[in-house]
Every structure is written in C-alpha cells, then in structure tokens.
Amino acid sequence: MSNIRVLIADDEKEIRDLLKAYLEREFYHVDVACNGEEALTLFNRATYNLLILDVMMPKIDGIQVCQEIRSSSNVPILMLTAKDDEIDKIIGLTIGADDYITKPFSINEVVARIKALMRRFLVLGSELTKQEASGIVHFKGLSIDLKKYTVFVNNQEISLTAKELDLLRLFMTHPEQVFTKSQLFRQVWDNNYIEDDNTVMVHIRKLRKKIEDDPSNPKYIQTVWGIGYKFVGEKDEVR
C-alpha cells in the first residue's frame, strides 16, 4: 500500500469522485474537500504529498489556497480549471503551482501528470534533505552552510547581512519556486504588510551584487516580470 497522501479540492462532486476513484486504484490515500476553506482546514490537520486544487471554488478559491500553502510548504500542487485561458495558467504557475490542467481533461493524463510530479519531487526532496542534513545546500558555484551561516561563491567565502542571508537561504532551499515580494517580506521580515515596496528590491539588488558574476544578468536569482523572483541553479554534488 502506498504511503502517498493526496488532497483533492473541487466544488464539483463528479470531479472529486472520479479523481478519488482513479487515485485509489493507484493505492494513494485520498482526502477530498468541496471548497477552499475546507481544503485549508484539512491541509493544516494532516501531511499531504500532493494537492489537486480547482481554481474556481466557493469561499476561498484555488489561487488563494495555493498562495496560503506556499507561504509554509513546498508540497507539489496541480491546478485544475474550467477556463482555457493562458492568463489563468500564468497566474496559477507563478503563484506556486507546479502543474496546470484544463477541464475537461483525460483522467489518464491527470494520473500521468501526478506520477511525474511525485517522481520529480521525490528526487528533489531526497537531494535537498541529504544536503540540509549535512548542513550545506550546494549548487554549482554557490553554496550555503545552514549551520555555520556561511556562503561561498566559487569556493570563496563572502560576507552577507542577516537579511541577505535569510533571503538566500529561502531561495536556495526552494529552487524554482516563484516568490512574490509580499511572500518574501512575510518569510524574511516576518511581516504581512510591506510598508516600503522597495525594501525587497533593494535587498535583492545588494544580494545579486555579492553572488552573481553579472548582477545585471543574474543566473541565480532571476526576476519573474510582474510577479517576483525565483532561484535557478545547476545541481552539484555536496562537498
């Protein structure tokens, strides 16, 4: 029996029942929610390996649920929507979803997407867990020691301020995840309200000057225009 636990949140009973039946055939443990509020309640009560969220749900929509979960978790998220709109896809993926599929869909395609997500995150999770257990998260040309609070660029130790270090730690332990300025402010400054929108931008700019070969064309901390920032790095062996 699989230990993988999936949460499905959709206001259409037929969709919930269909997905639940097929995933249980794959020996997944499945919980269901009929709205975003119920989804968040269930998520806070149990540990899930994957979430399937409908974009359009009553009380709290899937986008809001995804944003809330992304503030504290890297759990894989697959978004469902009845809208065949590129803008919806962009919004869904840039607020933290890992994949996106439009209704009506092929159930076999959904199952295949889920399996692909699980494989990807099991590999990534294994790598990061191994690195974090050693105290070091390492990408090619850049590493951070989470226990000693030291950072090395091309094997040379550099000096970072406390906030710069917190930002880099967040980015490097969540590679490829897009963070909005508000999310970064909540995570690093522990505040839900940005008093000065330039605060995050200034710290990102200073951090880039210290870790990037070319700060004007960054390879690590990349701008996702109109949304925020994400960390991109080539995986390397732990040293």
UniProtKB/TrEMBL annotation:
<dbReference type="GO" id="GO:0006355">
    <property type="term" value="P:regulation of DNA-templated transcription"/>
</dbReference>
<dbReference type="InterPro" id="IPR001867">
    <property type="entry name" value="OmpR/PhoB-type_DNA-bd"/>
</dbReference>
<dbReference type="GO" id="GO:0000976">
    <property type="term" value="F:transcription cis-regulatory region binding"/>
</dbReference>
<dbReference type="GO" id="GO:0005829">
    <property type="term" value="C:cytosol"/>
</dbReference>
<keyword id="KW-0805">Transcription regulation</keyword>
<feature type="domain" description="Response regulatory">
    <location>
        <begin position="5"/>
        <end position="118"/>
    </location>
</feature>
<protein>
    <submittedName>
        <fullName>Response regulator transcription factor</fullName>
    </submittedName>
</protein>
<dbReference type="InterPro" id="IPR039420">
    <property type="entry name" value="WalR-like"/>
</dbReference>
<dbReference type="GO" id="GO:0032993">
    <property type="term" value="C:protein-DNA complex"/>
</dbReference>
<feature type="domain" description="OmpR/PhoB-type">
    <location>
        <begin position="134"/>
        <end position="233"/>
    </location>
</feature>
<dbReference type="InterPro" id="IPR001789">
    <property type="entry name" value="Sig_transdc_resp-reg_receiver"/>
</dbReference>
<keyword id="KW-0902">Two-component regulatory system</keyword>
<keyword id="KW-0804">Transcription</keyword>
<feature type="DNA-binding region" description="OmpR/PhoB-type">
    <location>
        <begin position="134"/>
        <end position="233"/>
    </location>
</feature>
<dbReference type="InterPro" id="IPR011006">
    <property type="entry name" value="CheY-like_superfamily"/>
</dbReference>
<dbReference type="Pfam" id="PF00486">
    <property type="entry name" value="Trans_reg_C"/>
</dbReference>
<dbReference type="Pfam" id="PF00072">
    <property type="entry name" value="Response_reg"/>
</dbReference>
<dbReference type="GO" id="GO:0000156">
    <property type="term" value="F:phosphorelay response regulator activity"/>
</dbReference>
<keyword id="KW-0597">Phosphoprotein</keyword>
<feature type="modified residue" description="4-aspartylphosphate">
    <location>
        <position position="54"/>
    </location>
</feature>
<keyword id="KW-0238">DNA-binding</keyword>
<dbReference type="InterPro" id="IPR036388">
    <property type="entry name" value="WH-like_DNA-bd_sf"/>
</dbReference>
